[in-house]
Write a structure and sequence with these properties.
The protein is mainly alpha-helical. Helix content is 59%, strand content 6%. A 3-stranded antiparallel sheet has the order 6-5-9. It is elongated. The termini are far apart.
């Protein structure tokens, strides 16, 4: 069977189905109309006509033709998803603008929302005939004026009018309300419990402003009533979700009638899996000990780096610690805590070149010295004890010599002074007379 024959067969099946549905609807209407007419025949003349007209109008409103498979839950959920996406983008923009001043987010909130709504409309409805929330439910905007079995995409003027009214109209109405509030806000008096303090020094609003305020209030009330009525009709027949869609004859329908009316829960399942996994990690990591794993990884990294260096260049016979170049009076742990970014000898020499060399300071000098075992390097007691306690019995690598340290003890040394050398020597000599006198006396 060719594609043309297959399309023709589908068209015939759709026509027969449509004719059968029309016949069933006509039979149901005839039956209900006969029952309603029999019930209203006994009424007086004016009430009889009014009742029959009301019943026919209710049957028209209640008609459910064309509502499948665009179910109402998916359409309402799509609108909620669009609003949630807008709020998320607004929060991200606000977080980005807080570094330029906290006042920007409040003063330009209307303009930010206008730009976000315009961008979302261009990237979703204008380009793909569906918003992001509707696309998640596999819904597309279609032209309701077309009554054929195959849905027709909206025209450009319908989408342009939708964007102009939903984006530009909402922004203009917000700015109009803000302007009216600014014009009327400073003229209202301050009410107290028993009296009212009027601001007589301030000019009163002009009659034009008062009239515009009343007209705006009436227009807002009328719009909300019309929107509420349109939503009630949507709950009945599921045709048009909003008042704007009803005016422009835009409907949300599935692109194909062969799709099942089911919501995909794959995204929700992924969220639940990742949420359970993160909860499990938050429960497990404190029991395992993050510090122990971090020390194990750092020790493995250092060993790997040492092996790579040993393969590329000869091993140095001197000190192997990363802070072995510091003076002896400087505590390497104190220096590392105060200078976490510059730990190499070149960085130290560059930073201290103006002062004439690497010289310790009072903040990094060793106080209450303790020596580590087995290397014998000198550190502050608090520094060495805190590192050993954090190591939890596994030891830590000495910053001066690179030896694994697991214990420490008080330093038994003292200040070393150089040997004193006498520059002048004293000699005692006797004369011959003095020698003879001393011999005779003896």
């Amino acid at each position: 069977m060719t594609s043309i024959d297959f399309a023709t067969a589908q068209q015939r099946v759709a026509d027969r189905r449509k004719a059968r549905d029309a016949a069933l609807r006509a039979r149901y209407r005839a039956r209900s109309s006969d029952y309603a007419l029999r019930s209203t025949d006994r009424l007086p003349y004016p009430l009889k006509n009014w009742t029959q007209t009301g019943i026919e109008a209710w049957d028209t409103i209640k008609g459910r033709e064309g509502t499948r498979p665009a179910f109402r839950v998916g359409q309402v959920d799509a609108e909620l998803l669009d609003e949630e996406l807008l709020e998320l983008l607004k929060g991200q923009v606000g977080e980005a603008l807080k570094y330029f001043g906290s006042h920007l987010r409040d003063e330009w909130s209307s303009e930010i929302l206008f730009a976000l709504r315009a961008a979302l409309f261009k990237l979703s409805i204008w380009n793909h005939d569906a918003s992001y929330g509707a696309a998640l439910h596999n819904l597309r905007y279609t032209d309701a004026r077309h009554t054929g079995p195959i849905p027709k995409v909206p025209s450009r003027w319908q989408k342009a009018s939708h964007g102009l009214l939903s984006v530009g109209g909402r922004y203009a109405w917000e700015k109009w309300g803000t302007w009216l509030a600014d014009q009327e806000g400073s003229y209202e008096g301050v009410s107290c419990a028993n009296h009212k303090i009027e601001t007589t020094n301030l000019p009163q609003p002009t009659p034009t402003v008062r009239v515009l305020s009343q007209v705006s209030s009436l227009a807002s009330t009328a719009y909300f009533i019309a929107a509420f009525s349109s939503f009630l009709l949507f709950l009945i027949n599921g045709r048009y979700r909003t008042l704007l869609d009803r005016i422009l004859r835009l409907r949300l329908t599935h692109p194909s009638n062969h799709l099942s009316r089911q919501v995909s829960f794959e995204y929700l399942n992924r969220q639940l899996v990742w949420h359970g996994f993160t909860e499990f990690l938050l429960f497990l990591l404190p029991l395992v000990g993050i510090a122990r794993w971090r020390r194990w990884l750092s020790r493995a990294w250092r060993k790997t780096k040492a092996l790579v260096k040993q393969g590329n260049e000869e091993e140095d016979t001197g000190d192997k610690g990363e802070l072995a170049f510091l003076p002896e009076r400087t505590c390497a742990i104190c220096y590392q805590d105060q200078n976490p970014t510059s730990t190499s000898e070149n960085d130290i020499l560059i930073a201290s070149g103006a002062s004439g060399g690497v010289v310790g300071s009072a903040q990094t000098d060793i106080t209450n010295p303790y020596e580590t075992l087995p290397c014998g390097c000198i550190y502050c007691f608090v520094c060495a004890a805190s590192r050993l306690e954090a190591a939890d019995g596994e030891g830590w690598v000495c910053l001066r010599c690179g030896v694994l340290v697991k214990e420490c003890r008080p330093w038994a040394g003292d200040v070393v002074e150089g040997a004193y050398e006498e520059k002048t020597k004293k000699s005692v000599s006797f004369t011959e007379a003095e020698k003879t006198q001393s011999i005779d006396k003896g």
